[in-house]
């Protein structure tokens, strides 16, 4: 296959797939496929509820069509899979969306076709888990009748500076010739350039360690915050001072959620355990980061008790539910840990987040955010997510939501040190 013969389809039109399809749609004909009919209708109407792509950008993708009809995929010969790869309740990789997408593609796979995966997986998953599904569904033989590639996504939800086209892209293919073609396809849209990995497994491993590294680094800073809090030292002041050294990494403590950092390490540790190695540092970092919600609540309860604020039956406002600032993404948000832990103390919790869809919050977590917090109603306020709206309010307006005697916990260092009562 030559690059001029490529007929492209992107499977999965979420935070990763839609921006990718839009960029390709500015250059060449591409089919954007998703099994969610409501999502397809929304996109055909020029709207993206994830806010990753504007109506104007959708309009610029002149060659992009949308469909949820499997038979429409038959027109493509290169398929890019961008479905989620979550973990289950036991923190084990859940490859169900990836397997189902592979089954769908397998029904229409033809001789000479290429399937490229972007979803985060453990090293070996593409060839060990996905390819056998493609072979079983199509009756074709891998690397004889059809081929595979892997090019890990690097989307950062809500980030309007680092977009698909200006983030360097790792590419790979199941044969040297396919690796060259996969690389050439992405070079059509990636102005930041590409890095061709020597194998699919290398590309898979590179992806999974990117966020594992961040997770471990944040775990270290979270542990330092716990130590400094016991010592009565302001963590942010310490990090600011240490940050004057040229090679000190600027990580900050906090909740670690989202679709990547809080999930990807479990894909690597799963594979490590499968081959007989028990990871120490990675899992220790995961345990510490997963415990931060309960730590935040314990600090808040202590502060309330010291001020003789009755904890049981008190009313607390949690500002922010999305996993990060200025983004509606609720996937794996760890703010829910705070909400649930507060509930263990019989505290009445209001959650306020102007970015998130209330119905989605109810569906995913059983939490319905309030439309507007009540003035002067709260015994404590936790500024959990640094949305621009909250920063614009400032400390005075935020404190006006509290009772005359209340505790303000600034989890994101959004306020000046003297404007809050607690910081992580």
Kindly describe this structure:
40% of the residues lie in helices and 13% in strands. The chain is elongated. It has helices at 17-25, 37-44, 55-60, 96-108, 125-138, 176-187, 200-231, 235-242, 264-274, 281-290, 292-306, 335-344, 358-365, 388-399, and strands at residues 8-11, 30-33, 64-67, 78-81, 114-117, 147-150, 169-171, 194-196, 315-319, 348-352, 378-383, 402-410, 422-423. It has a 6-stranded parallel sheet, sandwiched between helices. Strands 10-9-11-12-13 form a 5-stranded parallel sheet, with helices on both faces.
Which characteristics define this entry?
424 residues; alpha/beta; six-stranded parallel beta sheet; five-stranded parallel beta sheet; 14 helices; 13 strands; 40% helix; 13% strand; elongated
Overall helicity = 25-40%
Mean pLDDT: 95
Counting helices, strands and paired strands, the structural category is: alpha/beta
Largest sheet: 6 strands, parallel
Overall radius of gyration: 23 Å
Q: Helical element count?
A: 14
Distance between the termini: 55 Å
Number of strands: 13
Give the H and E element order. Answer: EHEHHEEHEHEEHEHHHHHEHEHEHEE
Describe the strand arrangement of the main beta sheet, using strand numbers.
3-2-1-4-5-6
User: How much of the sequence is in beta strands?
Assistant: 5-15%
- Give the low-confidence spans: none
Write down the overall geometry. elongated
């Amino acid at each position: 296959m030559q690059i001029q013969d490529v007929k492209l389809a992107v499977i999965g039109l979420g935070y990763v797939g839609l921006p990718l399809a839009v960029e390709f749609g500015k250059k060449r004909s591409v089919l954007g496929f998703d099994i969610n009919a409501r999502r397809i209708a929304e996109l055909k109407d020029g709207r993206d509820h994830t806010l990753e792509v504007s109506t104007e950008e959708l309009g610029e993708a002149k060659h992009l069509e949308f469909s949820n009809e499997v038979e429409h995929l038959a027109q493509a010969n290169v398929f890019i899979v961008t479905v989620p790869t979550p973990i289950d309740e036991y923190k084990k990789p859940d490859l169900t969306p990836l397997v189902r997408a592979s089954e769908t593609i397998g029904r229409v796979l033809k001789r000479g076709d290429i399937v490229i995966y972007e979803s985060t997986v453990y090293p070996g998953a593409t060839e060990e888990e996905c390819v056998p599904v493609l072979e079983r569904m199509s009756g074709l033989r891998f690397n004889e009748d059809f081929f595979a590639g892997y090019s890990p996504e690097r989307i950062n939800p809500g980030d309007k500076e680092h977009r698909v086209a200006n983030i360097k892209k790792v590419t790979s293919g199941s044969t040297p010739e396919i690796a060259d073609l996969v690389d050439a396809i992405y070079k059509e849209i990636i102005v930041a350039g590409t890095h061709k990995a020597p194998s699919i497994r290398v590309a898979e491993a590179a992806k999974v360690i990117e966020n594992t590294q961040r997770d471990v680094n944040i775990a270290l800073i979270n542990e330092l915050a716990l130590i400094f809090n016991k010592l009565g030292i302001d963590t942010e002041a310490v990090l600011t001072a240490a940050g004057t050294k040229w090679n000190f990494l600027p990580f900050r403590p906090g909740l670690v959620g989202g679709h990547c950092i809080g999930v990807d390490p479990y894909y690597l540790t799963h594979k490590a355990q499968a081959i007989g190695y028990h990871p120490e540092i990675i899992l220790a970092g995961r345990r510490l980061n997963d415990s931060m919600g309960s730590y935040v609540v314990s600090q808040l309860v202590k502060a309330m008790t010291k001020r003789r604020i009755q904890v049981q039956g008190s009313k607390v406002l949690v500002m922010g539910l999305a996993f990060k600032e200025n983004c509606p993404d609720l996937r794996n948000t760890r703010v829910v840990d705070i909400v649930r832990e507060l509930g263990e103390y019989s505290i009445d919790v209001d959650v306020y987040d102007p970015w998130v869809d209330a119905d989605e919050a109810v569906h995913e977590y059983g939490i319905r955010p309030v439309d507007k917090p009540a003035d002067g109603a709260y015994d404590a306020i936790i500024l959990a997510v640094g949305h621009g709206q909250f920063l614009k309010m400032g400390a005075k307006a935020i404190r006006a939501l509290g009772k005359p005697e209340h505790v303000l916990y600034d989890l994101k260092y959004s306020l000046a040190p003297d404007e809050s009562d607690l910081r992580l």
